[in-house]
């Protein structure tokens, strides 16, 4: 079945690793190809399930898709088959793909209508789609849920720019509303907009296509509607979640690792948060170099209080790396409180770390205190199942640092987010194989 990794841990790794293109950016940028009849070429696309499914879905809709290189595709959305959106094929594919909601904004903007199957996907807390739908409604779209077919039918034949205050700074919600607004009549203002690098990348790409978006990088975006967009070329940023994961991996396994081409200036506070755990991180050009370290000591606050690391909307620390920080803290010297503010139930994988010998107190669904072992005691390998993408990679890092053999089941969860992760780790000297 090949759906488990077997890992023999406790070996230091060494070498260079190149992060893949950003998955979260890919899902938005790929959806944006629907906004124009002209050709759009995108490079640095990660070869992972969620992204490949969306590319396949675009092809099913009638987009002409060409693969120009392993990580580069061109898309031409000249003729879109409107009937496809009422089909069973769309319900099955669209319903199983978290990112498929991202095609709604572009479809509404360009064709004035769309249908969306009720979404499913990753169980990491209750992620609502209200932000998307409320934004579309403010622009003038009308929603009609058909319980028979399980589709939302959306009529947006007359989208008009307006003032929108988003109920939460959702990255996908902001992106979707931006894509709907670029072709709407008049001016749209989006306040409490997400301002992640992914979103800045999308806005810059749309502007190259002829959109008029200002305020990029802030939480107040102004969009002057235009009538038509043209083709462009775009290169995805490297995935900052991967970069953070590799920093954590190097520290936890005491390895000397160079992470290549990281677009350092787009990483926000990520390097600094890992430095708070005592990890030495050196910037070399656009690479991050992490020397082999036997010990790393968690800083305290200036008054001596225990360090707290919490997530927050960008430019705060991304929630996707909180589980990595938690795992890396296990072998640090000192203690840290991990506070997951933005989602619930993401910390429940700590029971597996406890089985491995970690010292962690789970305070409640949002907070865990890690008491560092300072490498005095090694974790021990166990068999475990990965509950979701983020926890999966954290458990993988723990297993690589542990004494003996670990088996991780349900690895399709990991592979939804990280391409060929086992091959790339083997290249660093990791003992990992599929069973």
Q: Would you write up a description of this structure?
A:
- With 435 residues, this protein is α+β, with helices and mostly antiparallel strands.
- The chain has two domains: 4-20 and 238-434, Enolpyruvate transferase domain (UDP-n-acetylglucosamine1-carboxyvinyl-transferase, Chain); 23-235, UDP-n-acetylglucosamine1-carboxyvinyl-transferase, Chain, CATH 3.65.10.
- It is built from 14 helices and 23 strands.
- The protein has helices spanning 23-32, 49-61, 88-96, 104-111, 130-138, 171-181, 197-208, 240-253, 270-276, 322-329, 350-355, 389-401, 412-415, 421-426, and strands spanning 4-9, 14-17, 39-43, 64-69, 72-76, 113-117, 142-146, 151-155, 163-165, 187-191, 212-214, 220-224, 232-235, 256-259, 282-284, 287-290, 307-310, 335-339, 360-364, 367-371, 383-385, 404-409, 431-434.
- The strands form six sheets. The protein has a four-stranded mixed sheet with strand order 21-22-1-23. The chain has a four-stranded mixed sheet with strand order 2-14-16-15, with helices on one face. Strands 4-5-3-13 form a four-stranded mixed sheet, covered by helices on one side.
- Strand 4 and strand 5 (72-76) form a beta hairpin.
- Helix 4 packs parallel to helix 6 (171-181), helix 5 runs parallel beside helix 6 and helix 8 packs parallel to helix 10 (322-329).
- The longest helix is centred in the middle third of the chain and has 14 residues, at 240-253.
- The termini are close together.
- The model is unreliable at 121-126 (pLDDT under 50).
- It is found in: Cytoplasm.
- Keywords: Cell cycle, Cell division, Cell shape, Cell wall biogenesis/degradation, Cytoplasm, Peptidoglycan synthesis, Transferase.
- Its main location: cytoplasm.
- The active site is at residue 122.
- Cell wall formation. Adds enolpyruvyl to UDP-N-acetylglucosamine.
